[in-house]
């Protein structure tokens, strides 16, 4: 006999006990210390799943750019490849091959010139990708500055970007001790101000970052105009030329399909590196990002490390080391599955829904639309000055939250911080019908707020900032 009677009874008991009859479900989940004893897998699954229950549906969260839907086959292959380590190129050479194919395809989408040798890598997201792009700019600047005899210690190097930057650039500047020079947004310039941007540039500038899809509003910086200004500057300042990195976190995987004629990428001479988030309009679950340089000369050698690969060596330039390769495989799945036309159809439909929402909002007569979803499918609005309502956008956000929708209200950046806006990020899984439901709920919420007895707000709206904070 393998077990004593006692043990056998125990085993039988555990197996047959219904999940909600188990000891583990009779007590709160452990918070500070490991439980002494294990819990059966199906019980652990259920208890954790339930612990997450009140977070609502990610698909109704219209504040995030990150994907909330993938096809079951994509999820399946990603789940089946979780154990593959993306950094381990020699153990998983075919996974490495898939990553390289993705880099090639993205380089093609971004018009990397045939006569240059592009280079790129997957990352955890755009934040890591921007960090790499920024580091390349800094090292490149320093190498040149030393060559030109500039005292590189006399001043902090600086980075020029619009005040609508995403927080990863602030991190980059703090981590690498760079002065962040902000080109302010204002009412007339809701993307980078091309009349003033070059005033911020000097010999200590490591580069200019153009944003394809300002996080706050979805607007594109005019990268083509920027390229012309930079070209002119470089003609006049050949010793300290400036180059452009494009932060295409959202636009980099959208514009190539929806506005193929818009020149913002490697078609422009001075755009030397670009990043994007595979988990935004690349349609993969978080976290995957990409960064590419148009030619290897733009990535200083100091930043390239070699790892062994199929008996040879392969350059790597990631900040992270071990992570699962399943996101890379998910990206390759989407590229194969959708093809150019598939991405185009999905994005077109997504944009249609955004424009529908924008039109419906306009019909209320209450809102001024900042972005109508016709470039990136992001709708962004503020209350009209003469709307004459006792409630504000924070109240509206609160009210539609009752139906599960998360549509944050928040202040615009510096200079415009008195403007409170509300934003909907339309993603691939928000169908026309879901858009219709959203607007029905929105109109109902407005009616309810109109009829409600509103308690006056303490302080001004600006002091409420951060209530619905968002960082992506
Ligand atoms: C989302 C975003 C980022 C950060 O991207 P992650 O992929 O979330 O790390 C950077 N820049 C812009 C413009 C963004 O929209």
From TrEMBL:
Identify its protein family. Belongs to the group II decarboxylase family.
Protein name in the entry: Glutamate decarboxylase
Keywords assigned by UniProt, alphabetized: Decarboxylase, Lyase, Pyridoxal phosphate
Concerning SUPFAM superfamilies, the annotation shows: PLP-dependent transferases
Q: Which reaction does it catalyse?
A: L-glutamate + H(+) = 4-aminobutanoate + CO2
EC code: 4.1.1.15
One of the GO BP terms on file? L-glutamate catabolic process
Recorded source organism is: Eubacterium callanderi
């Amino acid at each position: 006999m393998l077990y004593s009677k006692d043990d056998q009874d125990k085993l039988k008991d555990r197996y047959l006990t219904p999940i909600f009859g188990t000891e583990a479900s009779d007590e709160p989940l452990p918070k500070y210390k490991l439980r002494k004893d294990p819990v059966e897998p199906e019980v652990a699954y259920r208890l954790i799943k339930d612990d997450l229950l009140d977070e609502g549906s990610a698909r109704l969260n219209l504040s995030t750019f990150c994907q909330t839907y993938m096809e079951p086959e994509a999820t399946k292959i990603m789940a089946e490849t979780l154990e593959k380590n993306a950094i381990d190129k020699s153990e998983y050479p075919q996974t490495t091959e898939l990553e390289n194919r993705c880099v090639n395809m993205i380089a093609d989408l971004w018009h990397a010139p045939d006569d240059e040798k592009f280079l790129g890598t997957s990352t955890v997201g755009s934040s890591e990708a921007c960090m790499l792009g920024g580091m390349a700019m800094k090292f490149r600047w320093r190498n040149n500055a030393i060559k030109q005899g500039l005292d590189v210690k006399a001043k902090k190097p600086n980075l020029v970007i619009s005040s609508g930057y995403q927080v990863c650039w602030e991190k980059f500047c703090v981590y690498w001790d760079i002065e962040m020079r902000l080109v302010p947004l204002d009412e007339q310039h809701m993307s980078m101000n091309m009349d003033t941007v070059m005033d911020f540039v000097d010999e200590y500038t490591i580069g200019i970052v153009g944003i394809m899809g300002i996080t706050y509003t979805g607007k594109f910086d005019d990268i083509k105009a920027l390229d012309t200004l930079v070209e002119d500057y470089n003609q006049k300042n050949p010793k300290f030329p400036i180059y452009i990195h494009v932060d295409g976190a959202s636009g980099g995987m959208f514009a190539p399909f929806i506005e193929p004629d818009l020149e913002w990428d490697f078609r422009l001479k001075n755009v030397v590196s670009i990043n994007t988030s595979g988990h935004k309009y690349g349609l993969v679950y978080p976290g995957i990002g990409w960064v590419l340089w148009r030619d290897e000369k733009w990535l200083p050698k100091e930043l390239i490390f070699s790892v062994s690969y199929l008996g040879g060596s392969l350059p790597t330039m990631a900040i992270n080391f071990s992570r699962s390769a399943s996101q890379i495989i998910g990206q390759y799945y989407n590229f194969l599955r959708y093809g150019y036309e598939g991405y185009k159809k999905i994005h077109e439909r997504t944009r249609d829904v955004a424009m529908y929402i924008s039109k419906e909002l306009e019909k209320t007569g209450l809102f001024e639309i900042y972005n109508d979803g016709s470039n990136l499918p992001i709708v962004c609005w503020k209350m009209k000055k003469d709307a004459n309502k006792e409630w504000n956008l924070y109240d509206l956000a609160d009210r539609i939250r009752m139906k599960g929708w998360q549509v944050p209200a928040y202040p615009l950046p510096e200079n415009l911080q008195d403007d409170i806006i509300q934003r909907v990020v339309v993603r691939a899984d928000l169908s026309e019908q879901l858009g219709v439901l959203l607007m029905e709920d929105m109109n109902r919420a407005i009616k309810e707020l109109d009829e409600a007895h509103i308690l006056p707000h303490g302080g001004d709206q600006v002091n409420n900032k951060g209530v619905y904070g968002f960082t992506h």
